[in-house]
Amino acid sequence: MATEGIEAVFLTTHNWGRAAKFFQTLGYELEFATDHNSAMLRNGEGAYVFVAEVPKDQEPQTRIVLKVPDADAFPADADLDVVTPFEDTHYGTREMTVRDPDGRVWSLQAPRAD
Prior knowledge:
It comes from Streptomyces crystallinus. InterPro entries: Glyas_Bleomycin-R_OHBP_Dase. The protein has one helix spanning 16-25, and strands spanning 6-13, 29-33, 38-42, 48-53, 62-67, 81-88, 93-99, 105-111. The chain is globular and about 45 Å long. It has an eight-stranded mixed sheet with strand order 2-3-4-1-5-8-7-6, with helices on one face. The chain is built from one helix and eight strands, in the order βαβββββββ. It is mainly beta. Helices cover 9% and strands 46% of the residues. It has a single domain, classed as 2,3-Dihydroxybiphenyl 1,2-Dioxygenase, domain 1, CATH 3.10.180.
């Protein structure tokens, strides 16, 4: 089974309000904001951007999330460097992380089968 393209870009920032405004200036619309300094923005039908604020002592990071239609159908014997296997998330999906040959970590996200 293959991935179906980019699902999302997760960003951490030291100021989610400024980051959200930056993306809104680029045409993204605020889809929802949380009460803990994070927000999801979308521009059309493409990948969404999720911005979350982290403390000043943490380095802001970017994580690209690839879409998987069904975590249970994903081949368990795939030749991947699995960092974490598929696990349920607190935001209603299942997520797996893998490392590419150059050491970058990628997330694979699938709907949770409840």
